[in-house]
Specification:
Helices cover 16% and strands 38% of the residues. By secondary structure, the protein is α+β, with helices and mostly antiparallel strands.
């Protein structure tokens, strides 16, 4: 992001999202980051908005954590609806030797996209999964 770039959102969108959890607010903030401020995203996915995805970098590997929140209903936590075939794309220069799931114990196929990103698909997500990219 270049010096002097900024965007003004005329209300506290983070607080508003916290209080009302409207998906449109998250989409607005993501659009500002992507389109106005031109912030590069390290990770993209086609997962449902009910799947929380986080990525972590450590020496020699990366972790991608997924939590299926589809079973959360207010303060109740019910069995989640299983999710299938979640595509993950990570911007990374290194070529991994393996991509594997910790909970499912599966080795995942991966490929390089035209833009250089690493892409793989998680076949099944029940409650949670962690992918190790080594």
């Amino acid at each position: 992001m270049g010096a002097g770039k900024g965007a003004i959102i005329p209300w506290q969108i983070g607080t508003h999202y916290k209080n009302h959890s409207h998906h449109g607010h998250a989409m607005l903030l993501m659009a500002v980051l992507r389109d106005v401020l031109q912030c590069p995203f390290a990770l993209s996915t086609d997962a449902s908005p009910l799947v929380m995805v986080t990525a972590h970098r450590a020496a020699g590997h990366r972790l991608v954590s997924l939590m299926n929140l589809s079973g959360q209903l207010g303060t109740a936590f019910l069995p989640p609806v299983p999710m299938r075939n979640i595509r993950i794309s990570i911007n990374m220069e290194e070529t991994p030797v393996s991509v594997r799931t910790l909970c499912g114990g599966e080795s995942l196929c991966f490929s390089r996209m035209a833009d250089g990103a690493l892409e793989f698909t998680i076949p099944s997500l029940d409650l949670l999964e962690v992918v190790v990219v080594e």
